[in-house]
Amino acid sequence: MLAGIKNLFLRQFENKVAVDHINFSIQEGEFVGFIGPNGAGKTTTIKMLSGIIHPTEGAISVMGYIPHRLEHGFKKNFSITMGQKNQLWWDLPAIDSFQLIKEIYEITEPDYTRTLQELTELLEVQSILNTPLRNLSLGERMKFELIGAFLHGPKVLFLDEPTIGLDVSSRRRIRDFLKYINVEKKVTVILTSHYLEDIEELCNRIIAISHGKIIYDGSLSDITTGELPINDIFESLFNK
Amino acid sequence: MRKYVQVLKLNLQTSLAYKGNFIFTSLMDVFRVIAEIAFWKVLFDNAQGRKINGYNFNSIITYYIFMFIIASFTNVGSIGYKVANEIKDGALNNLLVRPIHYFGYYFTETLSQKLLNLLIALLMFIPVIVFRFGDLQAEIPAAQFCLLPVVVLCSLILSFLINILISLFVFWMTEVASLFLLKDILLDLASGRVFPLDLFPGPLLNAFSVLPFMYCTYFPAVMITKGLSAEALYRGLWIQLVWILVLYGLIKIIWRMGLKKYTGTGA
């Protein structure tokens, strides 16, 4: 009580460093798994990479753009999807949101029709394109979110826990989808996930982060010993 | 431009998806007007035919009805709440990463709602105007009629900018609900939505005439009901334009400062 009153007059803020001197560069076409416990700084890093928040120090370059300048040329070439946030219109069918995305990104009619058909077939969601989003299951919504993120053909895709809370079969389908766009469409993907299978199956490189610092950056399996450092990393990150 | 047309379309669609909610909101406004009329009726009955600052019962009812129709289009309080909440809970992220102009997007959204509200208000009051309940007096000169849409559109833009400007304080305050309540009360009063501003003493009215608020509702309402001299009309239009530029400039500066502090909270 007293502390509460004191707080009313003398506010003290504590600066928490979410991400501390991390340094990495990613090549075109890579599929990078960005892993770490809750609060490690994964989302903060992704938000900085996509220009949502300004870094207090340091420099970021994505496709030659400085993200937080939020230039349209930059925005047209990447996409971000967060497993815990809706980006499509809640009250309307997905197809209406896609129409809006088409106009916002100035996608041509033939491109739009072709991509939409391809993606909806891949994720098997043609039959629910006209159902209002609020009437769909979490898994179905996530599939639409991914389609929405990919309609404009981004070169870079940031995915923050896209499989969170989904069942095994939805997760598998989403993994197949992500593999397809990485391999066939040559999209560079940065994925965060707490599921080992997602990381193992999709990524050719992992960056592990803990308390805002990178603790591992490299391939999943050690080429010389054939060991899987990923298992140890997951172990040390989550079983403390 | 086509992207904004699409935003307009989707917003109309969403409003119509909630027909019940929409009708009740409109009904709420009707009851407000009825309550105002009842209040002035009692007041003038007791004043026994005298005028209050040049208003009689008919002219005050005229003011209320036209003010209400205009306010249905220019009162945009809810967009401020929406913008503030999007900043607060991180929903802004979604717009920030897309190649669309934020304020253009929000303005289009506002415009779509306001067009519907205006339509409903007109539908409600056309019978009143056509059948001349209570002898309405609109003194607007025919020559000024074509300028009316321009003035009303400027009123909408001005009102929109004032609300956006206040909502941006959420970058520093995290909770602005109380600020918004205060803003709603002050803005209602200062823009003439509670009573006509010329009931205020002269010096106060003069002070109001250089501030942006009365140009949100009072100015176009007086233009229709009492009529303005050409000189007063152009002066008001100039003040509207100057304030629009000033507020827009301020918003751009504060927006840029705010984004540096923005943390995109909530996943």
From TrEMBL, chain A:
Pfam families: ABC_tran
The UniProt record lists the keyword Nucleotide-binding: yes
Keyword annotations from UniProtKB, A to Z: ATP-binding, Nucleotide-binding, Transport
Keyword Protein transport attached: no
Organism domain of life: Bacteria
ABC transporter domain location: 3-236
A GO MF label: ATP binding
Protein name as annotated: ABC transporter ATP-binding protein NatA
Species in which this protein is naturally found: Paenibacillus auburnensis
UniProtKB/TrEMBL annotation, chain B:
Record-linked InterPro entries: ABC-2_transporter-like
Taxonomy, superkingdom: Bacteria
Key words of the record: Membrane, Transmembrane, Transmembrane helix
Sequence intervals crossing the membrane: 20-40, 61-81, 115-133, 145-172, 204-225, 237-255
Name assigned to this protein: ABC transporter permease
